[in-house]
Amino acid sequence: MKYSAAIATAVAVTSAAAKHRSLRYSKAGKATKVETSYYSGGSYSFSFNLIGVDGAPVVDDDSPNEPPKEPEELNQPIPDELIQPTFPQQVVAITTKETLNDPTSPQARSLHWIMNDDGMALDIGSQEWIQRYIMASFYFATGGGNWDECNAPKDNSQAAIDDANEKCNLSATQYSNGKNRVYGTKAWLSPVSVCEWASTACHDADNSKKGTISQIEFESNGLEGTLIDELVHLSNLQFLLLEKGKLTGNIPPKLGQLPLTILDLDYNELSGEIPDEIYDATTLQQIDLNDNKLTGTISPKIKQLSMLTFFQIDNNQMEGNIPEEMEYMKKLGIFTLSNNNFTGKMPSGVCDNIQSNRQGTLIADCQEVECSCCTDCFEAV
Questions:
Q1: Which of 51, 53, 324, 343 is the most buried (most CB within 10 A)?
Q2: At what angle do helices 106-116 and 127-141 cross, to 10 degrees?
Q3: Is the CA virtual torsion 363, 298, 250, 211 positive or negative?
Q4: Per-residue pLDDT for 18 more than 50?
Q5: Which H/E stretch holds residue 354?
Q6: Is 220 left (phi over 0), alpha (psi -120 to 50) or beta?
């Protein structure tokens, strides 16, 4: 009998294909079954069916009742590119398989945790399960485990949980425009609802939003890493405040799809441009992005943010003119853009909007931006 090159297709949920594996082969009718054991921070066993290049099961044409011979090819490791793990459909719908196949990615670590170590053991088909997956991905993506406070328990023992909670003293701000919400105070990844994790808040009104994340807020808690695209699937998120950390990379454009009221990412190391899509979040009342490494210009699309009262982008590397379209932002009362590379003249409509606010604040680099209405001018030292 001749065995051709084979493709192994996973028939069990896996977190990712690891590099170290051992193989066993057994006969099941005319098909050859391959069992492989993976190592990815621990040992996991998976089963695979060995399929020929023509799509049919590999069979022993000489004698279907005898164990298959083990030709030299079958004693070789299966190439990584031929391993096709099967992931939960809810996860694949929001995270690429390429990302999940990387065992070091925050999303793969989150999936492994929720499938193997999460003390809640939620129904995989529930909406709460996918929300938990996203929040755990955020935890791993921002250096969870090395935060200053509210890191995950070392294990699911009550002693470890109590110890983690004792080291967690954070809570989210209770905003007046965030009614009917519950606030978390417990360590992240602890075996309670994500609504009980510290520095979060969940909707608590008796409607379809109940139990969904409304707020994530951290300030000076040692967050570092990047913001994950999966945050957009927290579809009722209103307040995202991650201040004074070491977050890097770009602002995810998809955040513009959320019903955000406040986006506060100041004092980090974010780079790239403010995505045009951010200006699609027409519910925004506050954007606070000062003290990062942002570049690019202010898009004319900003006129869509008619509810915006606060726009702070000073101490970045942005450039260009201040768009005339900002005159449509009638509620804008605080606008600081100093220590950038803006040029031109402050639009008169912006001046009118700021001056109509009793506590109006407008700060710019007056040597580069002509601004007779500025309440203060920044002068480089």
A1: 51
A2: 130
A3: positive
A4: no
A5: helix 348-355
A6: left
Contact partners, residue 159, CB within 8 Å, separation at least 6: none
pTM, two decimal places: 0.80
Contact by Cβ (8 Å): 319, 295: yes
The H or E element that residue 350 is part of is helix 348-355
Tell me whether residue 26 is exposed, middle or buried, using C-beta atoms within 10 angstroms of its C-beta: 0 to 12, 13 to 18, 19 or more: exposed
| CA 28 centroid distance within chain | 43
Structure tokens at 329: 């932002």
The rounded distance, in Å, linking the Cα atoms of 201 and 262 is 14
**DSSP symbols for 53-75:** TTSSBP--SS-TTSPPP--GGGG
CA torsion 203-206-209-210 (nearest 10°) is 50
The C-alpha atoms of residue 225 and residue 139 are separated, in whole angstroms, by 10
DSSP letters for 18-31: -SEEEEEEEEETTE
Query: Tokens representing 27?
Result: 């006969």
**Neighbouring C-alpha atoms within 13 Å toward the C-beta of 124:** 12
User: In angstroms, rounded to a whole number, what is the distance separating the alpha carbons of residues 365 and 91?
Assistant: 47
